[in-house]
DNA sequence: AGCCTCGTAGTCAAATTTGACCAGTTGCTC
DNA sequence: GAGCAACTGGTCAAATTTGACTACGAGGCT
């Protein structure tokens, strides 16, 4: 899975209705340009593609308010919402070594009920354990690990990284279970988009 | 950078001359299927592309020894060797959050002199520090970090992962400086490819 | 008046990646 | 001795990603 679809669906969902440039801006606001390689081309492509697949409904909008090319506004369909939650759940659970996907999922995790988020993360921990086991399994020759020479360092790296990932995930689960943050159905949601006219306080 | 080019160049280099299937097999032997998403299509594509760019020289070979489609054998050109070392150095130095690239680079690091490898890794540590700083910088609002809500967890994750990466890198540098492994120009090199007819002891 | 830069909004060709598929050969088993 | 899986070697169309480019208006400077 690439992070783009999740990111774009999430952005459109928070706005209710959004055009490409708004999505682009939200991603910037979330700091996504730091960790996801979401270029304009990919964003516009994803919007069109998902519209074609029926995940988004495209409202043809008149030539934009400020001149320039006509804008298209998008809105989630039923299917789009399903896809969004499916991607979100998958991103939280499976380990696919793509941290941008995980980042996006963390940003949206509060769209799920608290208990479900925690449970998905617990499954993630199990996935990390499996990954670790498969790496050590593959790189463990009969004659002791020293036979591998420097190749063993590759395993070393993955194991180190899996352990770090597990540690962080366990910490997050703990914080969630201790009541941190506001999840779905718990009153006033945290709003992570810019309202019209509001300034981006992080713009460099 | 994607890991494929480095992996393919490295595989061809170790063989002197190789056709697509051999490359495919080496990658499997190195366990690369576990951590790089190198599908056959990508490998053959990379070979053709790099041949077109003059990095590889393509020898048209008669219909293969065992029937099936005719094979093409590739060999590194001068330019290909330069590109290989350029990619290798870059992969060791820069942090681009793609661990598959780093894995590949670790596998090939012994093609460099010991001192250079250590130096590149020291630069990598500096790059990790910069990345960490840029993340914490971006996600630190004026009113204390608690304003971010769950979004702060994203930063938390990246910082955790950068720290783990740094720790592992420092460990590796230490081992290298302590004399581990056999680097370029230090006598008998470690051979990481299957000779003709040899069996893969790791095949599942 | 002319020029330059920045912000808004988006397109396009080229490169890459994916995943499925093709076709011949052994080797094994029922 | 027929079938069938596994191995060898590779192609192909479709999807995705990249990076550069277009076009327009507002504001500022000189």
TrEMBL record, chains A, B:
Record's keyword annotation contains DNA-binding: yes
First and last residue of the signal peptide: none
Alphabetically ordered keywords of this record: DNA-binding
InterPro entries linked to this entry: Metal_resp_DNA-bind_regulator, Tscrpt_reg_PadR_N, WH-like_DNA-bd_sf, WH_DNA-bd_sf
SUPFAM superfamilies: Winged helix' DNA-binding domain
Alphabetical list of Gene3D superfamilies matching this protein: Winged helix-like DNA-binding domain superfamily/Winged helix DNA-binding domain
GO molecular-function terms, A-Z: DNA binding
Domain Transcription regulator PadR N-terminal: 8-83
Pfam families: PadR
Protein name listed in UniProt: DNA-binding PadR family transcriptional regulator
């Amino acid at each position: 899975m690439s992070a783009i679809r999740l990111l774009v669906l999430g952005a459109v969902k928070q706005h209710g209705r959004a055009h490409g440039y708004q999505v682009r801006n939200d991603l910037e606001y979330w700091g996504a340009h730091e960790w996801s390689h979401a270029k304009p081309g990919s964003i516009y492509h994803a919007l069109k593609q998902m519209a074609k697949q029926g995940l988004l409904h495209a409202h043809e909008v008149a030539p934009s308010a400020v001149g320039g090319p006509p804008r298209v506004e998008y809105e989630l369909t039923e299917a789009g919402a399903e896809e969004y939650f499916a991607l979100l759940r998958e991103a939280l659970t499976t380990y696919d070594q793509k941290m941008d996907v995980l980042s996006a999922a963390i940003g949206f995790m509060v769209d799920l009920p608290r208990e479900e988020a925690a449970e998905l993360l617990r499954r993630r921990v199990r996935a990390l354990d499996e990954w670790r086991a498969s790496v050590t399994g593959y790189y463990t020759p009969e004659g002791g690990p020293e036979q591998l020479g420097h190749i063993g360092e590759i395993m070393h790296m993955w194991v180190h990284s899996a352990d770090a990932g597990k540690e962080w995930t366990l910490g997050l689960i703990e914080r969630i279970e201790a009541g941190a943050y506001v999840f779905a159905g718990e009153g006033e949601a945290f709003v992570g988009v810019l309202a019209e006219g509001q300034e981006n306080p992080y713009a460099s």
